[in-house]
């Protein structure tokens, strides 16, 4: 007996729609990469190229020739190394408390957290708080400003709530405290949601630029996104101030630097994502369902 299900007309329609959607995403992405490897003249002749005839690394050489990009990478890695463990600790510990039915004041605390998703004080009160704490001009201001997300807390709390309460009760009968239960019982069973939240915080820290623009002043403290932004803006200014003879070439070179900057920014996250992909869908699905 053959159990293979025949494809219906609707299956073909869905397949075509998904294929078109995938191409609509992949073709612009591929075009960005190809522009970063193209020559100035080739980009001016064909901006929508799919394969450069004369590939070059000139845009990448110009991008990395500026010593600031190495500093930007280092500052971003420092933010990740310090901020990611802090964010995970704050989120997991609070999510575990809110996932326990007997936690005192659970509903009030949850409502206060939910309130921050709808209303917030804005950047001025946050800046004043950082100033009073003497953290402006320090990387810790950027780390603390992005160290907690109410959305991530809700996802993780819902996931913890789906775990059997009998596991925690058994651990308590064996003499385990709440911290021991969290680290020895709950977290080993929560790999999908931990991987998901790690990815969310990691991408947020990697792509963050606004907090650094507000709180930091020194060029040697700027993370990668701010450094790339300043390099590209300087290239655009130089192109706009160029003579009419060289303007087209310099503007094309500026576009090549933009595309190279986009690719350089995406590569680390693209390498990091596959390691967590197998847990990502399960973590989001389970954490998004209130049990």
Structure commentary:
- The chain has 291 residues and is an all-alpha fold.
- Helices cover 74% and strands 0% of the residues.
- The chain is built from 14 helices and no strands.
- It has helices at 9-36, 40-45, 58-65, 68-99, 106-118, 123-132, 139-145, 150-161, 165-173, 178-186, 191-207, 210-215, 224-240, 247-288.
- α1 crosses α14 and α4 runs parallel beside α7.
- The longest helix is centred in the last third of the chain and has 42 residues, at 247-288.
- The chain is globular.
- It starts with 8 loop residues before the first helix and ends with a helix.
- The model is unreliable at 248-252 (pLDDT under 50).
Brief overview, please?
By secondary structure, the chain is mainly α.
Question: Any idea what the radius of gyration is?
Answer: 24 Å
Question: What can be said about the biggest beta sheet?
Answer: none
Mean pLDDT: 82
The number of distinct helices, counting runs of at least 4 residues, comes to 14
Record the SSE blueprint:
Layout (H helix, E strand, L loop, with lengths): L8 H28 L3 H6 L12 H8 L2 H32 L6 H13 L4 H10 L6 H7 L4 H12 L3 H9 L4 H9 L4 H17 L2 H6 L8 H17 L6 H42 L3
Based on the model shown, name its key terms.
globular, 74% helix, mainly alpha, 291 residues
